[in-house]
Amino acid sequence: MSSIIQLLPDHVANQIAAGEVVQRPASVVKELLENAIDARATDIKLIVKDGGKTLVQVIDNGSGLGETDARLCFERHATSKIRIAEDLFDLHTKGFRGEALASIAAIAHVELKTKQDQEEVGVHLIIEGSKVISQEAVVTPKGTSFSVKNLFFNIPARRNFLKSDAVEMRHIIDEFHRVALAHPQIAFSMYSNGNEVFVLPSSNLRQRIVAVFGGKTNEKLVPIHEDTDIVNIYGFIGKPEFGKKNRGEQFFFVNDRFIKNGYLHHAVVNAYDGLLKEGTQPSYFIYLEVPPHTLDINIHPTKTEVKFDDEQSLYAFLRSTIKHSLGQFNIVPVLDFDKDATLDIPYEFKDKDTQTPTVIVRQDFNPFENKEQEPFKSSYREPNYKNPTQNSNWEALYACLKEDFSAIEVAHNDPETDQVFGSLFQETTTDYEEEMSAKTYQIHRKYIVSPIKSGIIIINQQRAHERILYEEFLKKITLSKSITQKLLFPIEITFSQYEIALLQELSHWRNNS
Ligand code: ADP
Ligand code: MG
Question: What's the CA-to-centroid distance between 74 and ligand 1, angstroms?
Answer without folding.
Answer: 9
